[in-house]
Amino acid sequence: MSSNIRSMHFALSSGRSRTCVETSSSPASSALRFRLRNLYGKDVWVCSNQSNDDVADPKVLQVHEVDLDIRQNTHEHHTNEFDITDSRVYDSREVLVIRRGQTFLAHVTFNRAFDPNKDDLKLVFEYGKCPLASKGTRIELIMSDKDVSNEWGAWIESSEDALTSLQILTPPKLAIGKWKLKIDVIKREESNKTTYRYVHKDPIYILFNPWCEDDSVYMRDEGGKLLREYILNETGKIYVGNKKKISPRMWVFGQFTGDVLDCALSLLDQAKIRDQARSNPVVIARKLSALVNSSNGNGVLMGNWDGDYTGGTSPLEWTGSCAILEQYFRTKEPVRYGQCWVFSGVLTSVCRALGIPARSVTNFSSAHDTDGSISIDTHFNTDGEPLEKYNKDSVWNFHVWNDVWMARPDLPVGYGGWQAVDATPQEASDGVYCMGPTSLRAIREGKVSLQYDGPFLFSEVNADEVYWMVEEDGSMDKRMFQNSVEKAKITDRDARHKKLCSDVEREDVTDQYKFQEGSEEERAAVREANLHSTVEGIYETADEDVEFQLCYDIDTFVGEEIKVTLTAQNNSATKRTVMGTLVLGTAYYTGVFHKELLKQKVDVVLEPNKEKELEFKVDAGIYLDNLVDHCIITISCFCFVKETRQHYIDRDELRLRKPTLTIKAPVSADNGQSFKVDVSFENKLPVPLTRCELRVEGPGLQKPVIYRQRDVNAKGTFIATFQMTPVKSGKRDVVVYFNSRQISGVTACHSIQVLRLSCKSEVDGMQLAVAMDDMKPPRQPTDCRAISFGAQIRDLGSSLTTVRQLR
Hints:
Blueprint: E1 4-11, E2 17-24, E3 34-39, E4 42-48, E5 63-67, H1 70-76, E6 97-99, E7 103-110, E8 120-127, E9 138-141, E10 153-160, E11 163-169, E12 177-189, E13 192-199, E14 204-207, H2 225-232, E15 235-242, E16 245-252, H3 260-270, H4 281-291, E17 301-303, H5 322-331, E18 335-338, H6 340-354, E19 358-368, E20 375-380, E21 394-406, E22 417-422, E23 428-429, E24 432-433, E25 435-439, H7 440-445, H8 454-462, E26 464-470, E27 476-482, H9 484-487, E28 507-508, H10 510-513, H11 520-529, E29 546-552, E30 562-570, E31 576-587, E32 593-606, E33 611-618, H12 620-623, E34 632-641, E35 646-655, E36 662-664, E37 668-670, E38 675-682, E39 692-698, E40 702-709, E41 717-724, E42 730-739, E43 746-755, H13 759-766, E44 785-787, E45 799-802
Parallel strand pairs: 6-14, 17-18, 20-26, 37-43
Antiparallel strand pairs: 1-2, 3-4, 4-13, 5-7, 7-11, 8-9, 8-12, 10-11, 12-13, 12-14, 15-16, 19-21, 19-45, 21-22, 22-25, 23-24, 26-27, 28-45, 29-30, 30-33, 31-32, 31-34, 34-35, 36-38, 38-41, 39-40, 39-42, 40-44, 42-43
Helix pairs in contact: 3-5, 3-6
């Protein structure tokens, strides 16, 4: 007999209306409606073909209460860190968050003992605005003696008096999101049927489950270390700088904080992903890479790379994702402003919240190929000056995107695992500003035709840079191409920097994207990818007998003099005449030139087998007012050997160091009890720092807060103090950013172990000041006042790094 599906509206006790879909095999049921009745002091939904008096039967089994055992279930499902599962944290919400493909416990209290042999009980789960059994978004369960693998199931765990405990199993291919729970008790007498319905007041959040072997995001993790990082870690480092000087930026992902999960789920609604497609992490990851930026409409973050952040927040000032996502969730308007590491940090937060293993990955000397040539083309005139009007391709000092972990049933076998996605709006993909997911194995092998966006990502990590000389008549000659083997040389002077970054938590993942630089496998991958290039014949080289090298101190601080040395070594038996130009300037991290600081001609004669060294200097007074984000100095050098017509072209970047922020705080504290934090640093600039502020947050310690600060004297010391009150136990991180008009993004992190008090002490502590608005810092000399957030290619991509845990 075919089913009749109908939509019904019924009023909730709050006065709101809700639409539900009922399925019945009886034509006579089409006239039935659920009505809210008060039976023996309880509000019960009743659907009956009997009179109103007949439904009030005290012997009929009725659900009085359902306890979803949130504490135990969330612990078993690795979701107990979500704020919304604990009414003692920040607000009164306490709802169940679980992961698919795993059982959870529900305790049902009836008006009498439940007898499975006599009582007809049914569990109903519904998803979305129009739940349909045919689409798998409406499920009816009856009690069973066994569970069937990868399917819905429910059975009795225990039963005593009026309390019955049920184990409920969800399938591992379930649509993620908010599910509604209803329990139906059905009374049958001859031709009469009455259904008594309990409607659970809160939704059940069901997420991806990387701990479940049958889930498409499953990650084998015998020691538990990987998922502690890629799902559970709320605080980490995003690496920035350049290939010679890598620095960490602290970032609070905060995937378990406040409204972050609700915001992530709302993005799926905004993307209009079909309900049944919300079980597929490939679809979701691609949609999220488009929705985290606002270039496609009303996405989370608006990008800004011009240095003018009027009407918003500088990307350098964000301490994490929480303030951004909560502002967006509240206003439904794009948050201003973001750049690549901010987009990546937010995407990491959203993916981890939904249960997709995710990491932020930084590519240094990252190519931006605009024409599909899988090479980066740079043009100069005959005097060695860059021709910016021709230089549409660019090389970013660094670029940050994401890797997400998932199976790829849409690709050939073996291409699952880490997939690259990028939320920074660079180039459109199928008309939308998004990128990925792209298999890392496919990129490593040069299989750029596999979905999605292979050519663009391959060029970012493995394109070669081609230099073109533009003659006065407009004709062009390819002068040279470079990869990182020829480019990245470390002098004895810089031997102490061979490690590039002293951070022991930094993980180099370059070998996951590409074979060893210069190896036969790596060059084969480049040739494979270039089968899809728009330019042919770029891999021809000429002999060279003059060796050039640029040197500078990568530990130069903002405010110190910049020194650059050019060394030319003549390796031939005859003299060589070298002519050219060296240009120093400030630049954005995207490689876009900002202001010229120095242009000097090179004209030197090299005797046989001799070398000469030229030194160039720029005083702080010249560059300070022209610095832009990330304090990057670009060095461009063009040299021409008159006798052999050998050309040397080099572009490099010096990232000036910022002050080191020091945090003094206890190594442990009691939950609910305030503790003091002192921060300080030395201002090395010869000018005062104005419009100063501290931005502070820490999951389980403090929601995002801003403390306004007084000016800091030139060459002076900055000192500030504030207080924090923990609301969660365990190891927690304090993240602090110092910003001013002259310099931004001076950051540090401090870990603290929050100890759990006795039950009474914990409750009392929670009643102190857990809300940001209630925090009243003590008066300090720096006047801390809290306000809320408002607002290589040569071979490129020679080094990639991923955010690492702080645990």
